[in-house]
Amino acid sequence: MARSISVSSQEVLIAPSVLSANPLRMAEAVNALSGEYDMLHVDIMDGHFVPNLSYGPDLVRSMREEWPDVLLDTHLMVERPQDFIDVFADAGTDILTVHVETAPHLHRVLEMIRAKGCVPGVSINPGTPVEWLKPVLPIVGLVLVMSVNPGFGGQSFIPEVLEKVKTLKCWKETGPFDYLIEIDGGISTQNVGEVVRAGCDVVVAGSAIFKAQSPYETAREMRRIAAEAKKIGR
Ligand SMILES: O=C(CO)[C@@H](O)[C@H](O)COP(=O)(O)O
């Protein structure tokens, strides 16, 4: 059974995306962060929904064995996500996120995720209107706003998506919702403050952390800036 995620209004969670780590040295790269992160983000790509391939459930299972207490945040960038809920939940992920663009029966898929004991997440591409999310917001624990077109690490942040973050924050404050707002794509120490002030609770960063000269110092600095921005944003 996956853990629930509670975040106080003072906190921002930093989620390094292991896609940017050297796959042959992933454990070493994560351990070098010495705990300067809050969850690990795992990108699953199928070569159809996105033009790239990445990992399968075996990676999540190995990560769960390696880091039994770490929150695992799996982002499915796949067509027919309903076919992959069981395998990723059984592999031990805590959060399982599917794309609004991929699931005609999105409500059912999110209920399947919850029934497997994971936190259901829904993700949205930069070009998709935020209104598409509204019908499922009462049943999700996380909304992942993509700030690049998904498929690759190391792309540039698309600032227009911050409008979606602000809208989601406003809906959350006025509605009976209980979701975290996560952002993913092109996040660095340069823009983490801005995305947190817009309303993000969880920040994914891949290349900014794993390709940095000192991944540990960068993750630590990102956390510091995020926490500071959260104080100002309150
Ligand atoms: O889902 C994706 C890309 O599709 C992301 O999680 C990337 O892995 C983030 O990498 P950076 O943009 O931070 O380098």
Automatic annotation (TrEMBL):
Active site positions? D43, D184
The entry's free-text remark on the cofactor is:
Binds 1 divalent metal cation per subunit.
Q: Which UniProt keywords apply?
A: Carbohydrate metabolism, Cobalt, Isomerase, Manganese, Metal-binding, Zinc
The yes or no answer to whether the keyword Metal-binding is present is yes
Please name the SUPFAM superfamilies in this protein's record.
Answer: Ribulose-phoshate binding barrel
Q: Which GO terms describe its biological process?
A: pentose catabolic process; pentose-phosphate shunt
Short name of any one Pfam family annotated for the protein: Ribul_P_3_epim
Which leading EC class covers this enzyme? Answer: isomerase
GO molecular function annotation: D-ribulose-phosphate 3-epimerase activity; metal ion binding
Cofactor(s) recorded for this entry are: Co(2+); Mn(2+); a divalent metal cation; Fe(2+)
Q: Which PANTHER family match?
A: RIBULOSE-5-PHOSPHATE-3-EPIMERASE
Q: Which HAMAP family match?
A: RPE (MF_02227)
Protein name per its UniProtKB record: Ribulose-phosphate 3-epimerase
